Amino acid sequence: MYDPAPLLPRYGERSLAEVFPAVLGALGVPGPAPALGLPPVRAAAVLLIDGLGAELLTAHAPDAPTLARLATEPLTVGFPSSTSISVTSLGTGLPPGTHGLVGITFRACEDRLLDSLKWTSHAEAEATDLRDALPPEQIQPHATALERAAADRIRVTNVGPRTFRGSGLTRAALRGGHYQGVHALGDLASEILTALSGPGRRLVYGYHADLDALGHLHGPGSTPWRFQLRQVDRLVATIVEQLPPDSLLLVTGDHGMVQVTRRYDADQRTELRLGVDLLGGDPRARHVYVRPGAVEDVRAAWQETLGEDAWIVTRDEAVAENWFGPVAAHVPDRIGDLVVAMRGAAGVIRSIAEPVMSGLPGQHGSLTAEEQLVPLLLATTVR
User: Fold this and answer.
1) Which fold has domain 16-257+368-380?
2) Nearest residue to 16 (alpha-carbon basis) of 67, 61, 77
3) Distance set, CA 4 to CA 174, 319, 323, 336 (Å)
4) Is 30 exposed, middle or buried (0-12, 13-18, 19+ CB in 10 A)?
């Protein structure tokens, strides 16, 4: 039995966008009172585990005793519940409708889809690097939490894969401070602890990707995924065991994940292509950009094809129902004329335009509890 209504993000109350404002408040950075309360600290680290869903953690708590012990009330991530959107909400303290990254792929200019993970063109014979044509600082113009911390004379360090240094998403969501590239779990833990240590106020952001990768490849809850969860648990335990005095570690995720077993192929099914100009998003959350005057016909065709496997709304309905949070003036055209959020174990794939993504068993992006809820884990040495 499907949930009758989508699980809408708790923007302004308990979403990813509330995390960094709370951390900055704990470090003494001036600003509005945060929705999440944290104790005052000298140093703080925020560690994002890609693909760590709250319901998955609860189901596999024996594999992650440290994470389970640190868990508090879960957060919602925002819509779509996918990495580039969530990372930008976390990094800016803003909901997707305000920061403007509204999909894994979305219409960032009149006739072209932007892949917001790679910052390249999408569904073209050869992907084009768009960092010059669509500068990340213009697509997402708001100051990041790392920039605000650095402006308040906090020592800021961003610890993540070396290949992410200077990437479009890093520039859009996490610009500011020093970027420290790492290779594996060992130097991720070491660099986070090093950056937290020493005199003065310090802020560290850390990122780990492999749990998400194994969930996509093998399915969430699979044996490889569970074994990786054990490694993540040990990573967090290592940091907690050596956390410097008067500091805080906050661990969260950017989305959960579901196993997709029913696939509707938009590249092969005529009824899903008629009247459609561009098709963005990902298999669990699609932006459907339609030709003038075709919205109702396209909606009817998609609803007839997908049935109870999807919530289908117009752009205006999605905005009115707060799927994206408050929407800035420059953002509506980036949202599809129709927005499709999948239910159950279904996904809308594109076997030609997205051959790799289409074959992955693990997917995320929609408004189900499995995808929306992520843990909020806290450890502190404040006395």
Assistant:
1) Alkaline Phosphatase, subunit A (3.40.720)
2) 77
3) 36, 19, 16, 23
4) exposed
> What are the backbone angles phi and psi of residue 159, rounded to the nearest 5°?
-110, 115
What average pLDDT score do residues 269-292 get? 98
Q: Which amino acid is at 349?
A: I
- Answer for the pair 119, 129: CB distance below 8 angstroms, yes or no: yes
Reading the block at residue 170, the tokens are: 């890093």
Q: What share of the chain is helix, strand, coil (3-state, %, to 5)?
A: 35, 25, 40
Q: What are the residue ranges spanned by the domains of the chain?
A: 16-257+368-380, 262-363
Distance CA 37, CA 33 (A): 9
Amino acid at the residue 257: M
In the β-sheet with 247-253, what is the strand arrangement from edge to edge? Answer: 178-182, 155-161, 202-208, 43-49, 247-253, 376-380
3-class SS at 43? Answer: strand
Q: Which residue has the tokens 């129709």?
A: 338
Q: What is the pTM of this model?
A: 0.97
* Residues 134, 296: Cα–Cα separation, whole Å: 31
Fold match, 16-257+368-380 / 262-363: no
Closest CA to 375 of 257, 254, 231: 254
Is domain 262-363 in CATH 3.30.1360.180, yes or no? Answer: yes
pLDDT, tens digit (0-9, with 9 covering 90-100), for 293-329: 999 999 999 999 999 999 999 999 999 999 999 999 9
| Residue 350: both structure tokens together | 């594109």
Token couple for 345: 């174990």
Structure tokens at 1: 């039995």
The total number of residues shown for the chain amounts to 383
- Per-residue pLDDT tens digits for 199-242: 999 999 999 999 999 999 999 999 999 999 999 999 999 999 99
Helix axes 19-26, 83-92, angle to 10 degrees: 30
Q: Which of 10, 30, 16, 86 is nearest to 250 (CA)?
A: 16
**What's the one-letter identity of residue 194?**
T
pLDDT per position as a tens digit, 102-138 = 999 999 987 889 999 999 999 777 889 999 999 999 9
Q: Cα 133 vs. chain centroid, distance in angstroms? A: 24
